[in-house]
Amino acid sequence: MSTLAGPASLRSTTPAPHPAYNTCRRRSNLWAYAGADGGDFDHELSLPNTDFGTFHSYPDYWSKTVGWTEQWIRDHGEAGRKAGKPVVHEEYGWLAPGKRQGYTGKSDTTPRTEVLSKWQAISLEEKISLESVTACSVLGVAESLPTPNSWVSYTRE
Predict the structure, then answer these.
(1) Do 45 and 61 share a structural domain?
(2) In a shared domain, residues 85 and 128
(3) Complete edge-to-edge strand list for the sheet that includes strand 53-57
(4) What is the pLDDT of residues 95-152, one digit of tens each?
(5) Which of 2, 100, 116, 123 has the fewest CB neighbours in a 10 Å radius?
(6) Do 42 and 108 sit in the same domain of this protein?
């Protein structure tokens, strides 16, 4: 157990970090791979009672690039093959340029269709079992919502 420093009202006794923290099989100091969110994807996928693994990709909010995310997807596919278990790219999104600028202060005008198509192609190459876009809408539907989702992908069909 470790004690958190800070104002008395915020202090609490919390468990020490998970043993996987900074000891993940990938030996990376990057938070996304080093267990900073509480787990080791490769290890958890190898457990006998784990049937499949899931992961998300939101590079805008993680201060990552499209290229970094492409490798992130490949790494999860590799983990699934090593464990002999399916992996689900459960959620992913690439903000519209205006929303990206507003939320992150960064600018990237790469079209969503290009980014998401590439991520889907990589998922297929990597034998990732299923992927789903966070939100998809037929043109005309989402625009009529009071607060359209920043992650919505539109189709004309």
Answers:
(1) no
(2) yes
(3) 53-57, 87-92, 130-131
(4) 888 888 888 888 888 888 899 889 989 999 999 976 655 555 444 544 444 444 555 5
(5) 2
(6) no
CA distances for 74 relative to 30, 79, 125, angstroms: 16, 9, 9
86 with 135, same domain: the answer is yes
75 close to 45: Cβ distance less than 8 angstroms? no
User: What value does the CA radius of gyration of the chain take, rounded to a whole number of Å?
Assistant: 18
The answer to the question of residue 67 being in a domain is yes
| 5 belongs to a structural domain | no
Domain, as residue range, for 88: 51-157
Per-residue pLDDT band for 9 (boundaries 50, 70, 90) equals very low
Residues 68 and 26 in one domain: no
Supply the pTM of this predicted model: 0.70
Please choose, from the candidates 147, 148, 113, the residue with its C-alpha nearest in 3D space to the C-alpha of residue 133.
Answer: 113
Is residue 153 scored above 60 in pLDDT?
no
Is the pLDDT at 72 greater than 70, yes or no? yes
